[in-house]
Amino acid sequence: MTGTGMTGTGMTGTSMTGTGTSTGKTGAASAPSPPTLRSVHRLMSPEGVPLRLELASIGARIGAQILDLTVTTLAALALLLLIDAAELVAPDAQIAIASMLFLFIRIPYYVLSELAWNGQTLGKRLMQIKVVASDGGSLTTNALVMRNIMKEGEIFFPASLLIILGAAAAPVETIIASLWIIGTLLVPLLNKRRRRLGDLLAGTYVVTLPTPILLADLAHPEAAPAESSAAFAFMTHHLDHYGVYELQTLEGVIRAHGGRGPLQKTAEQRAAEAQIVQAIRRKISYADPVPADDHHRFLHDFYRAQRQHLEQRQLFGDQRADKFHRQGQDGAKP
């Protein structure tokens, strides 16, 4: 809305249904305490919406890895038992065959499950974590293949070498393989974004799965502010000026100031609220004065009435994106 601090508030990203997604307690008056900077990754989605994701803990990632290794190991052992029952290989070649089976089951399992479940394996689903692209876009097949092939080089190949060679391995080989495994395991511990080598090359992160909840519907009567018993009524000509963009911006203002009475707000917040109220009154030609203590109630009632008005207009096919919706009708801005 012109001439006010309201335009700087930005869009809330909610639709006209008045709902959205968030993380924390439903309908809480204040947001939960944010995680530390080391556990949070901020990225910009392709739609231009900033996202704030909590990075998965090392414990959750280890737990997911143990579960996935259990699944793949059981599958490899089952195939090995079938091969033994059919007497297809010599007994002295069983360790090598088991390692090959483990490899051929493990890589497709990780890649295909993360493709099918959008960045999650069975272990990640149970631990409520997932892989995301660092640029906020969709996960690509190349990225998932890269991060899982690198996992073989980081841990599984040297670990398999130690297991296969066993006591026959030279001390130098054992030391080099052990140091390599320890070094790759230290990378996510020393990396503030907890990325292993595969994540660094593939451009991915592992994050805690966000929990979607519904925000309180501002249009619901129970969401009305309690600091005043006053109610404001608006006529059709009052509501025929703004569109969805202004409605979403106003919702952001109400949510930012919601749950606080006039005495709990700073002088800057009260001044901004008063400026927005005056701008709306001028724009819609609302003649009745609005006391300072009722500014928030006025904005809330105006939001409810404006949203109902836009929803009714939408039923008749009248889409009003913003306050310039009349421009296409009469060729001039209102």
Describe the protein in words:
This protein is 49% helix and 6% strand. It is mainly α and 334 residues long. The protein contains ten helices and four strands. It has a two-stranded antiparallel sheet with strand order 1-2. Strands 3-4 form a two-stranded antiparallel sheet. The N terminus and C terminus are likely disordered.
Task: Based on the model shown, name its key terms.
two-stranded antiparallel ribbon, mainly alpha, elongated, disordered C terminus, 334 residues, 4 strands, 49% helix, two-stranded antiparallel sheet
Amino- and carboxy-terminal Cα gap? 12 Å
The gyration radius over C-alpha positions equals: 29 Å
Q: What gross morphology would you assign?
A: elongated
β-strand amount:
5-15%
Question: Which structural class best describes the helix and strand composition?
Answer: mainly alpha
Which strand order spans the largest sheet, edge to edge or round the barrel? 1-2
What does the secondary structure layout of this molecule look like, with pairings?
Blueprint: E1 40-44, E2 50-54, H1 58-85, H2 94-116, H3 122-127, E3 129-133, H4 141-165, H5 171-190, H6 197-202, E4 204-208, H7 244-257, H8 267-284, H9 295-315, H10 327-330
Antiparallel strand pairs: 1-2, 3-4
Helix pairs in contact: 1-2, 2-4, 4-5, 7-9, 8-9
